Amino acid sequence: MPFVTTTEAGVPIQGPTATLLYDDWYPALRTDRLRPNRLTTAMLLDIPLVLGRRSDGRVFAMRDSCPHRGIPLSVGWFDGEHVTCRYHGWEFEPCGGQCALIPSLSSYDHLDATRIFATAYPCEERDGHAWVFIPSPGTGKKGRSAERAVPELVKFGPRYRTAFLTADLPCNVDHGIIGLMDPAHGPFVHQAWWWRTRSSIRQKTKRFEPIAEGFRMSAHAPSGNSAPYKLLGVYGEPIETTIDFTLPNRRTEVIRCGEKWFSSLTTVTPVTSSTCRIDVIAAWNVFYHVPLVTPIAKFFGAKFVRQDQVTMIQQAQGLRHNPSLMLIDDADKPAKWYFALKQARLDSAATGAAPRHPMDGPVDLHWRS
Ligand code: FES
Ligand SMILES: [Fe+2]
Fold first, then answer.
1. Which ligand is nearest to the CA of 69?
2. What is the Cα–Cα distance from 264 to 108, expressed in whole angstroms?
């Protein structure tokens, strides 16, 4: 369930909302939650979804609403091929949404059931996520799904370990994303003996360059003051890390050290216009043969995400009262680029012109963290 902030009486309080970016792929849920002949619900961009896996293996995502009278399709039945509505038994093929049967039609009816469609969204499975393409309202079922590749975690070989983490955040997607790319909170939110301490703050310079609908922290040797990076140093080769942010919500990080690599894809997905969810998927071949590395990595990763989550729960308390906020240079520059990139995509969707990138070229940012 998405997090909501509540009053002491338990009444949900909706925090400030964010403008949503449609026409893109978002992770709806982990596909290991899909059971044979079962329907599972999820929420994306304020849209209730029903998901499942057909008996041929394909995953699907439909709007959780029957086109006849609007009852949730998720309360109906699924036999591996068709979703049957609980109210009047209409049957739908779930990948395309086409109606296959209306049981009440008699020989006197001329209605062609196959001309009726429930809303089915493009849905693809990658890295254990069910990615769903949410078109702009009113642009048809598939929108521009073919123009945008389904996101996927980069891997550099066939043998690797993986881990997945998730946390609901009670703030809107904009706060979730700028929290994700904020370099200055690390020493305060993520201080721990195994990661770093507040006294390890030092001045840093990082080069950023524009990439399509995003920006890249250029390949650099990772900061020497965080322990996991130091661990990679045991391989004795130079370590290089690259961090990209791209619209609508993706941060990818790749760390390479000779033949060894670590790769992660973090997304902050709007569940509703005032709440979001962070998902992290990671793959690595570092310490491939060392036992217990996966549970240990998951344990520390979960702590890290939990620290961000706790901070955002606290922040949501403050945001309930709609305070005015500020973004400062240079530590908040990536957040400014995010807002500019987002606005550029919204403008481009409205005018049809190519989106204007807020960066002219590479730029160095300086901060202490
Ligand atoms: S409401 Fe679904 S078949 Fe009538
Ligand atoms: Fe963080």
1. 1
2. 59
